[in-house]
Amino acid sequence: MSMSGPVEPELIRQLPTAELALHLLTTLAKGRTVNANSTLRGAEQAFVYNREPDVDLLLGRLSDAWAWLESRGLIGPAIRDTGSAWRRLTAAGQELAQDAAALPKLWGGERLAGALDPVLEDKVRPIFNLGDYETACFAAMKAVEVEVRRAAGLGDSVIGVALMREAFKRDGGPLADSEADPGERVALMELFAGSIGAFKNPSSHRTVHFDDPVEAAEVVQLANLLLRLLRRAEARRQTQEEP
Predict the structure, then answer these.
(1) Which of 113, 123, 141, 205 falls between 20 and 30 A from 23, CA-CA?
(2) Does residue 105 sit within a domain?
(3) pTM of this prediction?
């Protein structure tokens, strides 16, 4: 006779918490409802029966994995018995249990867990949440372009990389910091120009496949950083123009 816990002891010892949690999730998905106490007590019986030398460590790691699943919204209250300790796999939890490839969606969402610039919150986050990552990346960089043009007071005839170079050019650029080191001014100009050139213009002229939600989220984060820097430059310009 043999007994086994929800995850093999050796995996519990070796895997990082996130990966361990996914193994636990796969086991939990076999039941309609789940219970932390029942899961841990069943695991404890198996570990003791099999004479595992580090039962408390194993149980502690399983507890960490359970907490990880709950914190990511993969386990939630049971539908009918919400006052008890019984839980169920959420829709996201069921999706992840059935397809490990769904994990990048979780990581991508976590990348964007904090507040974004209001422009990105309104125009980009909804698109990203729908899984249209290519459009989300294009929209994020397009928002940067639009905001730079507005803040710099430049016309519609200048676009893309040329717009960034004109707005932030070292000498006389409307958004350049005249008090900064010349090299820093050039670096900031190149940061904006390079970002637009790499992530906005290619999407305008050819199909770019952003199949990786994490990469797409990082492009949106980059746009958010650019907008943060732009807001700072805009505030500085307004201060300098005050009588």
Answers:
(1) 113
(2) no
(3) 0.79
